[in-house]
Amino acid sequence: MPESVNESRSMSTVTEQEALEFHARGRPGKLEINATKPMATQRDLSLAYSPGVAVPVKAIAEEPSRAFDYTARGNLVGVISNGTAILGLGNLGALASKPVMEGKAVLFKRFADVDSIDLEVGTEDIDEFVNCVKHLGPSFGGINLEDIKAPDCFIIEQRLREVMDIPVFHDDQHGTAIIAVAGLINALHLTGRDMKTTKLVCNGAGAAAIACIELIKSMGFTSENITLCDTKGVIYQGREEGMNQWKSAHAVKTSDRTLAEAVEGADVFFGLSVKGALTEDMVRSMAGNPIIFAMANPDPEITPEEVARIRDDAIMATGRSDYPNQVNNVLGFPYIFRGALDVRASTINDAMKIAAAEALANLARENVPDEVAAAYRGNRPRFGPHYIIPVPFDPRLLSDVPRAVARAAMDSGVAQRPIVDLEAYGRELSARRDPIASTLQRIYQRVRRQPRRVVFAEGEEEHVMRAAVSYANQQLGTAILLGRIEQMEEMANQAGIDLEIPGIELVNARVSRRVEAYTEYLYARLQRSGYLYRDCQRLINTDRNHFGSCMVALGDADAMVTGTTRNYSTALEDVRRCVDVKPGHRVIGVSLALCRGRTVLVADTAVIDMPDSEELADIAEEAAGVARRLGYEPRVAMLAYSTFGHPPGERAERVREAVNILDKRRVDFEYDGEMAADVALNLDVMRQYPFCRLSGTANVLVMPAFHSASISTKMLQELGGSTVIGPLLVGLDKSIQIVSMGARDSDIANMAAIAAYNVGS
Ligand SMILES: NC(=O)C1=CN([C@@H]2O[C@H](COP(=O)(O)OP(=O)(O)OC[C@H]3O[C@@H](n4cnc5c(N)ncnc54)[C@H](OP(=O)(O)O)[C@@H]3O)[C@@H](O)[C@H]2O)C=CC1
Ligand SMILES: CC(=O)C(=O)O
Ligand SMILES: [Mg+2]
């Protein structure tokens, strides 16, 4: 792990404009509903709706638990708020809480494949709120209450738990407590402290704070050693102002009246209050090796930089993703509900919470898997002051935490559908992971560790500028925008884009000192292909693809991204004039298609029009290489319209010959063909060919020709709702990526990150 806070900052904050655009782009917001059954024919309609739907209706009326068999209830969580304590922003109302609630819903899906829907309830009246949620019970398998202020949240949760037969979980209380306790267990271990004698001060006495304190006490802390503070200062016995029964339960006998007094000599500080509440002087006054969890969102009570300026012996955590040790309930709620839903738990009890906290704490002590290690580029995170809690993208969270929660639910007798084989359950959980998101995350993390200089060749385009700003803001390296400086600045001004941020460089080819060197280089390459010196000079002076490619070729930049203003093949020709093919390789395009949790690589989606058998074999090898670099073990299907000889035809013959060539080359990955796409992608169909050499469904599809590759990926995207990334250009000696015309800023930024990731590979 990195040693200093500055080095370890892994992700910069986004700009306000980026945040607004992210939410406004395309379909506003972050959620949509998808049907899981076909709705295409009269028969489908008759089954899905009247008359067919009457059958499950009657079955559920007879036996309510059948709702879990015939409806989405068993995997559906309601994320419900009234917006009275939105993050640390205060009471901004139900409507304003919607972005956070949509966010929680997508995190449920992204991290644990739990479906959820946000419900913002426009009342601050406790009875009205309880009544509203209570009557929604039949819709859901669980209720996640969110951002409801204390003390209302305590009453609301308690009353709902009494009247509902599904888990009701106030995330800000218990989610936060579970994660904070997991981090605390490890921080105490690292500093050699005993729970019984550790002195903890918690600033904030609301939902999150009270729940944390209760869980901590239940795990062995002594009441006298815990001091709570709120806006009125220390919560001492006898205090009357601003009190409620939940605060009173934790009031201590003390002469301390302010946070500053309480925190002096304290071992641990928990911040669950507001930005900036802990001062540098307070940090100075704490005990040796202090543990400081500044968990207010979006801005902590004190930043790690501020703490680092004062002392270097602190273990520091925040609620944010851009510092190490993110103590945030995102590490909890998706997995806790996953486990609870899978055993149909009637509640989420203390045993399940403690099991989750212990599973999280244990994960941080284990060796991290390669997937996480890759993100740290050789600096494999190791249990220690900068790594006390797993990172949110750790794939083990999904297999370990729900399993621990499910086991605790069964052991404590609240599981209505126990799981017999927990090992098999762990494997099922792993299969729920969203693979492409982890892949992209890995790419981004690694680039952050090894930032690269990437040329954005079409620097005068607004969305290219936005992509460059996003690249720089995410601390992926330097984004070099090529263009006329004045034009770029004017365009940026008009569009409200700030180019004066660290990590952005503007380069004008016309006035560059490198024009001569690039021209010489290009002339040496092209003089025997009919180009005069002045032709090369003109290309360097006036064409940004040539200039940018030469920057990369001569080491002035690491990588380049282009393509928004010129069609793919023209941009590729420009690049090829300046950059060689990697020895022993072939230039092809590989697209990544993600559809319903499955990722397949499709090749060649960009370059070779009508490949012969040798070329098809080369494409298979290149694509398998890409799969490996992205962390997948390739299973390559050589696709055709026919399967293993039937129906016969010349095109299929060519694909079959490619398989023979791969046999002769003795390649080190699984491949087979020719086969139709359904054989490659559907295990049941594949099983009809028991001799097929693939050990599972294919994850690399080699198309018989460019047109079928391009048509199928575009159809997947437009009709199948797949996310398609690429084509990624592979086989060049330098890392250059070409996006398609009309690519959005996020596509360009992704491609720039991929280009940076591929440098030197
Ligand atoms: N990292 C994470 O995962 C999570 C972080 N949080 C963060 O914790 C904070 C509190 O959230 P939550 O408990 O839901 O909110 P609540 O509204 O329930 O509680 C807020 C508490 O903070 C206290 N407070 C506010 N300002 C100050 C101050 N200047 N000094 C001392 N105490 C203060 C309030 O005091 P009083 O009682 O006097 O009004 C109250 O006790 C937020 O910043 C939130 O983002 C919450 C959940 C998860
Ligand atoms: C993380 C969270 O739930 C909060 O800050 O409110
Ligand atoms: Mg919250």
Mean of pLDDT: 92
The H-level CATH homologous superfamily of the largest domain, spelled out, is: NAD(P)-binding Rossmann-like Domain
Beta strand %: 5-15%
Count of distinct strands: 21
Distance between the termini: 24 Å
Query: From the alpha-carbon coordinates, what is the Rg to the nearest angstrom?
Result: 29 Å
* CATH T-level topology of the largest domain: Rossmann fold
The kinds of small molecule bound in this structure are:
NADPH dihydro-nicotinamide-adenine-dinucleotide phosphate, pyruvic acid, magnesium ion
Structural class: alpha/beta
Q: What is the top-level CATH class of the largest domain?
A: Alpha Beta
How is the biggest beta sheet arranged?
6 strands, mixed
Count the helices. How many?
33
Cofactor: Mn(2+); Mg(2+)
Protein name: NADP-dependent malic enzyme
Family: In the N-terminal section; belongs to the malic enzymes family. In the C-terminal section; belongs to the phosphate acetyltransferase and butyryltransferase family.
Keywords: Metal-binding, Multifunctional enzyme, Oxidoreductase
Structural features, described:
The relative contact order is 0.07. A six-stranded mixed β-sheet has the order 7-6-5-8-9-10. The protein has a six-stranded mixed β-sheet with strand order 18-17-19-16-15-20, with helices on both faces. A five-stranded parallel β-sheet has the order 13-12-11-14-21, sandwiched between helices. Mean pLDDT is 92; it is low at 1-12. The radius of gyration is 29 Å and the shape is globular. It is built from 33 helices and 21 strands. α10 (171-190) packs across α11 and α22 (462-473) packs across α33. β9 (291-294), α15 (304-310) and β10 (315-318) form a beta-alpha-beta unit. It starts with a helix and ends with a helix. The chain has four domains: 174-329, Rossmann fold (3-Layer(aba) Sandwich); 332-433, Rossmann fold, CATH 3.40.50.720; 444-578, Rossmann fold (3-Layer(aba) Sandwich); 588-731, Isocitrate/Isopropylmalate dehydrogenase-like (Rossmann fold, 3-Layer(aba) Sandwich). By secondary structure, the chain is α/β, with parallel strands linked by helices. The longest helix has 20 residues, at 171-190. Bound molecules: NADPH dihydro-nicotinamide-adenine-dinucleotide phosphate, pyruvic acid and magnesium ion. Pyruvic acid binds next to α10. Its cofactor is Mn(2+); Mg(2+). It comes from Hoeflea poritis. Residues 173-410 form the Malic enzyme NAD-binding domain.
